[in-house]
Amino acid sequence: MKPFSQFFVFVVTVSATSYIDAFTRNDFPNDFLFEAATSAYQWEGAFDEDGKSPSVWDTTSHCDSGSNNGDIACDGYHKYKEDVMLMAEMGLESFRFSISWSRLIPNGRGRINPKGLLFYKNLIKELRSHGIEPQVTLYHYDLPQSLEDEYGGWINRKIIEDFTAFADVCFREFGEDVKLWTTINEATLFAIGSYGDGMRYGHCPPMNYSTANVCTETYIAGHNMLLAHSSASNLYKLKYKTKQRGSVGLSIYAYGLSPYTDSKDDEIATERAEAFLFGWMLKPLVVGDYPDIMKRTLGSRLPVFSEEESKQVKGSSDFVGVFDAVPWGLEGILQHIKQSYNNPPIYILENGKPMKHGSTLQDTPRAEFIQAYIGAVHNAITNGSDTRGYFVWSMIDLYELIGGYMTSYGMYYVNFSDPGRKRSPKLSASWYTGFLNGTIDVASQDTIQLQRKCSGSSSL
């Protein structure tokens, strides 16, 4: 079994817990990265400016009238310099963002949009000028609408060639300044959410599918994602890695599971769930094929790798992203990876606490949530895990793909009623800043004192 050279742990969660031991920023390795994340459709806005064409999320969000869409979002396209300055003031070492395929290559293939290219070059330049490393996701669900219309997007193998060509442009144009690339964000959940729930994005109203199509197309889409990822990754290794020295990986959906009881049936059920939720994407990246239990259960509904495809997919990820739900579950996953995969480097790409948008600037539950997860990471490192980074979702309030503007994850509040999209720091931003610059000691009363200090500015 070929081990991964890097693993990225991708975490989005909705449940906080008190999981706090004594630790400070100085208890982490000097090169450990504390970071934050966004995605193009949720952050940029400017949905039809400077040559950008519609994505499937533009189409879907416009099905209903009103402003519950990402047309403006928090206007990162125009306010990126302000946001980078806020990141620098917080002390972030890295920023994860995605590239809008339909902004960079409006037709999905062919001509590059010079204004889209300039925006991403300027963003990357601005980040690096403030000492912040860019971490880029190539695909965060916003497929160009033209490709969905032409051949159905991810259920058609034509997507492999088009995605690889898109990745090639990104590697060529940005690769000198980007060392960490994620090909597809949370591929497993994307396949389930876009194809397995009976609804297809990019259609208005979203397309309704029969049960038979749902049960088949979910796995076809996932299969094509693996082939597109491996095609792009292998291209990078052959064409760019020697000079650029970056890493390319895939983000998948998985979380820690344990049997409900100690019965044999529950043990078997847990192993089956792990195979479908975790092994579906991970095992092909390790051994070049799907878990045996998936093949037995799904039969002809599960696509088959050719011998050449199996070789291409196996070992194609320098890192992998993993979705988890609670701190103890995160520790369990880190322990499993340490024991099963020769303790590779791990980065937690995304971790956030949802709250009602606009409720308060004193978001104590979010600060406690971040604190709990950093504590879980610290415990895992103490127990020998080679975890090297942690990304908070999100740096500022965004348009959330599920909650729209009703739910927020940001450490900075954005007034979406203000044409200027004014940003205001929440308690969580102050806590994260204090933790990063060493003025917050988790074991002390510093957090309580910070809450008192911020209490006078809790209203919006």
TrEMBL record:
Q: Where is the signal peptide?
A: 1-22
- Spell out the molecular function terms from Gene Ontology: hydrolase activity, hydrolyzing O-glycosyl compounds
- Keywords, sorted A to Z: Signal
Q: Which InterPro entries match?
A: GH, Glyco_hydro_1
Entry superkingdom: Eukaryota
Residue ranges of coiled coil: none
Q: Does the keyword Disulfide bond apply?
A: no
Q: Which GO terms describe its biological process?
A: carbohydrate metabolic process
Q: Which Gene3D superfamilies match?
A: Glycosidases (3.20.20.80)
Any single Pfam family the record assigns to this protein: Glyco_hydro_1
| Family recorded in the similarity comment | Belongs to the glycosyl hydrolase 1 family.
Q: What is this protein called?
A: Beta-glucosidase
